[in-house]
Amino acid sequence: MKYTSILFLALLSFAVLSSCSQQNPSTSQAVDSSISTDSIQTPSNEVIFSLISVIPDHGIHDSPQKAFTPEYYSLLIEAWAIPNDCPGEIGSNEWLFYFTSGNGDGWDHVENITTSLKGSQAIVKYDCVYSYPNTPNDHHQMLLQFNDNHWIIADYDNTKAELLKYIRQQRDYFRSSKWQSHLQSLDYLSDQQKQEAQQDVDNYFQQYPNDR
Predict the structure, then answer these.
(1) Taking a C-beta distance cutoff of 8 angstroms, is the pair 156, 142 a contact?
(2) How many CB atoms are closer than 10 A to CB 85?
(3) Is the separation of the CB atoms in 138 and 161 below 8 Å?
(4) 43: which DSSP letter?
(5) CA distance 60 to 76
(6) What is the pLDDT of residues 137-190, one digit of tens each?
(7) Model's pTM, two decimal places?
(8) How many CB atoms lie within 10 A of CB 45?
(9) How many CB atoms lie within 10 A of CB 151?
(10) What letter would DSSP give residue 24?
């Protein structure tokens, strides 16, 4: 009986230690284990410029999946898939179209690039300079992850947290009675247009049934 108890306690301790050593797969970033972090080089300006060029701006059609970590990209595509909560007008999704340049023609060039490297991640800070007179520079920051022998975007201007917050808020809103009341109050929409707006919401939930 004594030896059985000792064996049970040993097995229980091993199980607890094993579970504590495992990383949460939803928060860890995939890194090529065959590459030592000591051999990772700071991203070049050419690499940085190429990643800046694919940051979503007025849409996500020019942002290839391979340029982002899977976690960040999944947030981007779902956020853009969420229907406008004010059909035909400016809604809560407006902020998605101002990631980089907003309503203007865009910045002219990038300068003041600084990069800090820590293991398999790099923080890149830079300024977007506009050609318009008396227009201040825009300060931006990218968090890059080294994976599969190249750098990809893990976050941009801390929008990863904002995207998650936006998705959760909009999902709750579209499930609420407030959405139905708001939709029916839009006098500039015909009954058919209201039905189409609701269908867009239903289609979104069919495509993304799971909450985050």
Answers:
(1) yes
(2) 19
(3) no
(4) P
(5) 8
(6) 889 999 999 999 999 999 999 999 999 999 999 999 999 999 999 999 999 999
(7) 0.79
(8) 12
(9) 25
(10) P
Distance of CA 77 to the CA centre of its chain: 8
Cα(170)–Cα(78) distance, integer angstroms: 11
Tokens of 41: 């080089």
* Nearest-angstrom CA–CA distance, 151 and 115: 13
Q: Are 60 and 77 in contact (CB under 8 A)?
A: yes
Q: Are strands 138-147 and 121-129 parallel, antiparallel or unpaired?
A: antiparallel
Q: Which of 206, 43, 18 is nearest to 123 (CA)?
A: 43
Query: Coil, strand, or helix at residue 146?
Result: strand
Structure tokens belonging to residue 80: 């853009």
Q: What is the largest CA-CA distance in the chain?
A: 85
163: nearest Cα among 202, 111, 212, 196:
212
Question: Which residues make Cβ contacts (< 8 Å) with residue 211, sequence separation at least 6?
Answer: 168, 171
Strand segments (E) across the chain: 109-118, 121-129, 138-147, 150-156
Model confidence over 37-66: pLDDT tens digits? 778 999 999 999 999 999 988 789 889 999
| Distant-in-sequence contacts of 37-41, Cβ < 8 A, 24+ apart | 37/119, 37/120, 40/117, 40/119, 40/120, 40/146
Q: Which tokens belong to 148? A: 């599969």
Given a contact cutoff of 8 angstroms between Cβ atoms, the answer to whether 123 and 151 are in contact is no
Burial class from Cβ neighbours inside 10 Å (0-12, 13-18, 19+) for residue 173 reads: middle
Task: Rounding to the nearest 10 degrees, give the CA dihedral for residues 79, 80, 84, 85.
Answer: 0
